[in-house]
Amino acid sequence: MIPAPEALARLIDGNRRFVAGVRAHDTLSGPARRNELTTGQEPFAIILGCSDSRVPAEIVFDQGLGDLFVVRVAGNIVASSQVGSVEFAAAKFGTRLVVVLGHSQCGAVLSTLEQLQQPVANQSRNLRSIVDRVRPSVEALLATELRHDPDALVQQAVRANIRVSVSHLRHGSEIIEGLVQTGGLLVVGAEYSLETGVVDFLEG
């Protein structure tokens, strides 16, 4: 079992390599590594990230096969299936780091802000379910001066949504909460910049 601080350091180092355009030799995913993983897996970090095609966790953290247990959903929202996936990996594999990975200009956050400011009739109920998950984390921002600064509003909304997802994971599961309190599990938020490739860890 890799302790959370060491796992976090691996991700930070991997992102630095990604930004620099350098790939570590030990993250290559060749036949030997595939064969090694047929008998099991020991991912050192769990990533709950957005489905955006520009933010593949394994690439932005320069990791290979078997390194990360990745759950992806639009807006990096937390619903029962995502919580269950995180519980499974933390309990089954002993993974001790969970990262909620959002990103700049998140489409789900942008759609939620647009829906709050100019509601669209006849929105798909499935899309609405995503908006409804994001809404509580960003709605209050529209009552502040940020509503006059669209760029700052989106930036703060993305981070607010990440923090709410972190809180939901920490406090929405007895298994995860117990592992945080007594098992060394760390749940942190992070934001990936589409512009620079840098992952900024918000806490932890």
Description:
With about 200 residues, the chain is of the alpha/beta class. The protein is about 50% helix and about 15% strand. The protein contains 8 helices and 5 strands. It has helices at about 5-20, 30-35, 55-60, 80-95, 105-115, 125-140, 150-170, 175-180, and strands at about 45-50, 70, 95-105, 185-190, 200. Strands 2-1-3-4-5 form a 5-stranded mixed β-sheet. Strand 1 (about 45-50), helix 3 and strand 2 (about 70) form a beta-alpha-beta unit. The protein starts with a helix and ends with a strand. The mean pLDDT is about 90.
Strand residues, percent? 5-15%
Q: Which regions contain 5 or more consecutive residues with pLDDT less than 50?
A: none
How much helicity do the residues have? Answer: 40-55%
Category by helix and strand content:
alpha/beta
Describe the strand arrangement of the main beta sheet, using strand numbers.
Answer: 2-1-3-4-5
Radius of gyration: 17 Å
Number of helices: 8
Mean pLDDT: 92
Query: Major sheet, described briefly?
Result: 5 strands, mixed
Distance between the termini: 19 Å
* DSSP strand count: 5
Shape: globular
The H/E string reads: HHEHEHEHHHHEE
Question: Top keywords for this entry?
Answer:
204 residues; alpha/beta; five-stranded mixed beta sheet; globular
Produce the secondary structure layout:
Layout lengths: L3 H17 L10 H6 L8 E5 L7 H4 L7 E5 L7 H14 L3 E7 L3 H11 L7 H14 L11 H22 L2 H9 L3 E7 L6 E3 L3
Parallel strand pairs: 1-2, 1-3, 3-4
Antiparallel strand pairs: 4-5
Outline of the structure:
The chain contains eight helices and five strands.
